[in-house]
Design brief:
The complex is a heterodimer of chains A (about 170) and B (about 180). Chain A has about 170 residues and is an all-alpha fold. Chain A is about 90% helix and about 0% strand. Chain B is mainly alpha-helical and about 180 residues long. The chains are: A mainly alpha (about 170), B mainly alpha (about 180).
């Protein structure tokens, strides 16, 4: 082997990156060839100089403060973006809900329910002026009794179904 | 990585900004040397240093193994510096280095060696400087360097050898250098 072809092996030998056979081959070459030994020494010296010179380099003292400040700004911007996205999404969803209520069967049902509630309220007010307070009170009590009996009936029905299901 | 840094990396992965700031304090010199070796300019290095740590903060949640933090941050620093260099090369025709101007006036031997080396590194390619700093200064093994630079291990071996030969020749003035 000549010295030119040994260079790459010597460089890797210095870094302890050779396999066992390559390492043995390099060590044997180093014993026999003074030029290769000088080349290895040169690599080691250069490596030492690079290490020593660069070890002196220090980052500025305030770097972590600047990074922390940038991170804070970054987080604020991210939060602002998220809030904006939330508002926009809510607005779009709200509009979609209103639109769907306007055209869907559920929307028709809600509108009909609102109209019915208004009619009941209107009827109740008119009833008072037509039949007088006593009759209004009697009708209200009668309605409450019928309503309570209906509820009680439904509850009884549910309980019976439940007990039948358990037995 | 020491135990204290491992804890800081873990806390940073959970979004602890204070832990990340302490990591920055512990690793700022480490990153600075990598970036400076590539850029050869202290002003740009400071900008890239900050950009590197901001990128690291944004992506640390995806770090798979906290023990790989040094090679992970080295990879971010190297990529960011190389991208910066590419951007700047398009903008600046001939960079003027303050260090080179100072070197001619300073008689101090220690500073002269440092400047000689910096000038020699300045004559080398970015790829050679990057690989030298990763190996000589931070002691990454070939496999780690291959991961950082995204090149095969065989290329690491040959590129490192070529970089060493080139640097030695420039320092010895064999290629018509300044010495």
């Amino acid at each position: 082997l000549n010295c030119d072809s040994m260079g790459e092996f010597l460089s890797a030998y210095m870094d302890d990156e050779l396999n066992r056979e390559e390492k043995m081959m390099v060590e044997s070459q180093l014993r026999e060839c003074p030029a290769c030994e000088i080349m290895l020494q040169d690599f080691q010296d250069t490596s030492k100089v690079v290490y020593e010179v660069f070890s002196e380099f220090r980052a500025p003292l305030e770097v972590e403060k600047l990074v922390a400040k940038n991170i804070f700004t970054l987080r604020q911007n991210t939060q602002a973006r998220r809030l904006l996205l939330l508002y926009l999404t809510s607005g779009v969803l709200g509009m979609l809900v209103v639109l769907s209520l306007g055209v869907s069967p559920v929307g028709h049902f809600i509108r009909a329910s609102i109209r019915l509630a208004i009619a009941i309220l209107y009827g109740s007010i008119n009833l008072m002026s037509v039949v007088g307070n006593v009759w209004t009170a009697l009708i209200t009590v009668l309605m409450l009794v019928v309503f309570s009996l209906s509820i009680a009936g439904i509850i009884r029905l549910f309980r019976r179904i439940q007990s039948e299901a358990l037995s | 990585v020491n135990q204290q840094d491992l804890v800081l990396v873990r806390d940073s992965m959970r979004g602890d900004t204070e832990a990340f700031t302490m990591l920055v304090r512990n690793y700022k010199d480490f990153v600075y040397r990598i970036v400076y070796a590539i850029l050869q300019n202290h002003v740009d290095t400071e900008d890239v240093l900050q950009e590197t740590f901001i990128k690291a903060y944004q992506s640390i949640i995806g770090l798979r193994d906290e023990r790989t933090f040094p090679s992970w941050i080295a990879r971010i620093a190297t990529r960011t510096a190389l991208d910066w260099k590419q951007r700047m090369n398009r903008l600046r025709a001939v960079p003027v280095e303050l260090e080179q101007i100072v070197s001619e006036r300073d008689p101090n031997k220690g500073i002269r060696i440092r400047v000689d080396l910096e000038n020699a590194l300045g004559q080398m390619s970015t790829e050679h400087r990057a690989i030298l700093v990763l190996r000589e200064i931070h002691g990454f093994d070939y496999e780690e360097i291959a991961g950082i630079l995204k090149i095969p291990v065989g290329t690491v071996r040959s590129r490192l050898f070529n970089a060493r030969v080139r640097l030695r020749r420039i320092l010895q003035g064999e290629s018509g250098g300044q010495n």
